[in-house]
């Protein structure tokens, strides 16, 4: 398929969704400019050899009625340029589920779309699947809440400081980049992310927070993503939470979390200067990781 054919399918699906969900309480187009550019691209195919500069993004909001309350489910959707030849980027948020349950729901949705929707528009399929399956997760959550908790005499697990070095084939999508920044801040993780091709993310902090960050990130739609390297350092428990925090902060190599770019270049501005990346890592005392990522020694 060509960029024009992909764009025509995207526009047709958006128009269908708009007719099915006519109010802003049901469907919210978060980037009107991207929609206008998509429509112009379809109507004027003179530049059909390259995709529109922006990508449509929108929210679909659904209300689920349960026996006890009404639960809101929001699907955050973004179209890759090659959609529907590749899957859309869909993130599910549900007020009635914990983070762990949302992660499980997301993983099941991604698996369903991968198995059933390759090459076809599928946002409505995702909406229907979420409506049919979210209640099962909510019911599981309710049962867990009323189940009696067994008291355990086991000691508290030892605190561990972790640093994860994550590699992705690429990081372009604005929604993913926003998620990475927001989740790292929410979980009090320091580090950095480098968008482009390849994409690099480093997070450091309490092991539990790093694992939660990874569980959220890995279920998003990626061409390839993996933990390239990890560092886990056990902390001596002193019986004082403040001392644990002190130990964690003393092990951090980064102050806060930032998105870092290094002289972007290339046709799409998606390649970074690896020499500058090496210097950045060297200043943070992490230059040995460069060879783990790229198989060569930096300089």
Please sum up the structure shown:
The protein is α+β, with helices and mostly antiparallel strands.
> What is the ordering of alpha helices and beta strands?
HEHEEEHHEHEEHEHEHH
Query: Between the first and last Cα atoms, what is the distance in angstroms?
Result: 43 Å
The helix fraction, in percent, is 40-55%
Give the number of helices: 9
Main sheet summary: 5 strands, mixed
Output the strand order for the largest sheet: 8-5-7-6-9
Strand content: 15-25%
* Overall body shape: globular
Structural class estimated from helices and strands: alpha+beta
Taking all Cα atoms into account, the compactness measure Rg is 22 Å
List the helices and strands and how they pair.
Layout: H1 3-20, E1 27-29, H2 32-43, E2 57-65, E3 70-78, E4 89-94, H3 99-116, H4 123-146, E5 160-168, H5 174-186, E6 190-194, E7 199-206, H6 207-218, E8 225-234, H7 241-251, E9 257-259, H8 274-283, H9 288-294
Parallel strand pairs: 6-9
Antiparallel strand pairs: 1-2, 2-3, 3-4, 5-7, 5-8, 6-7
Helix pairs in contact: 1-2, 3-4
